[in-house]
Every structure is written in C-alpha cells, then in structure tokens.
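#lab-general

N.A. 3:47 PM
ok so I finally got the sequence cleaned up, no stray characters, all 132 residues accounted for. can someone with queue access submit it? mine expired

B.Y. 3:52 PM
send it over

N.A. 3:53 PM
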Amino acid sequence: MLNVYLAGPINGCTDEECKAWRAEARRMLEPIHAVIDPMDFDCRGLEDHMACDIVKHDLMRLDQADIVLVNAQRPSWGTAMELVYARQGGKPAIAFVGLPRGSVSPWLRGHLSKVCGTLEQACFEIVNFYQG
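B.Y. 4:20 PM
back already:
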C-alpha cells in the first residue's frame, strides 16, 4: 500500500473546486492505497494568519507520501511548490491536466513522472503501475 498525496489548488477555490476531484480520487485509490489529503486541514480564510503552519503541515504530509497525484488543470502556487518539493525528495508525481497534453508547460512536464489527460487516467496509472 502506498501513501498518495493529493496536490491541487486550494487557496481561493470553492468547496466544490477543492473537494470534488479529491473525493473522486479517494474513491478510485483507497481500495488499494492510502490517501493523504491536505483538505483534511482546511485553513481557507486563515491563510494570512497561519501561512507558516499551513506550509509546515503540508510539507510534513508530503514527507509521509510515496507518490503525488497532481491536479494541474489550472496554475496554483502551492501545488507548484509541492511538486518541486516532491521531486527534490525523489517522489514520483502523476498529473492530470484536463487539456491537450501538448500544451503542458515544459516546467510542469519536467517535474512529473507522467502526464495524463484526466483524473481517471492518472488514478489508473497509480493503481496499476505503482506498488507499495
């Protein structure tokens, strides 16, 4: 069993934008892998007062992860920094981009192990090609 960290936009996002894809990923991954969800520590609205705590907590959770599932459908400062941190730690990262894969930034592509078009494809990759 692997620990899969769910990296994706949170700051400035609605509940639906933060939680819907994570719930779907959890549904697809949890029969086989454990999910680490930074939304379990939802500090939206407190970012100005808790910035350092939020970052420390997320980095601690990333340290516990074996692999990172990245929602790269839109730019996000936090997600980009989590991705760099994961890469520096030698963790594989699988992203879903929701757009033609040819239009993915070389900086994003260069930090990923695999680029997928959809969440379903990314979860399939993790379930079928990464073993704990």
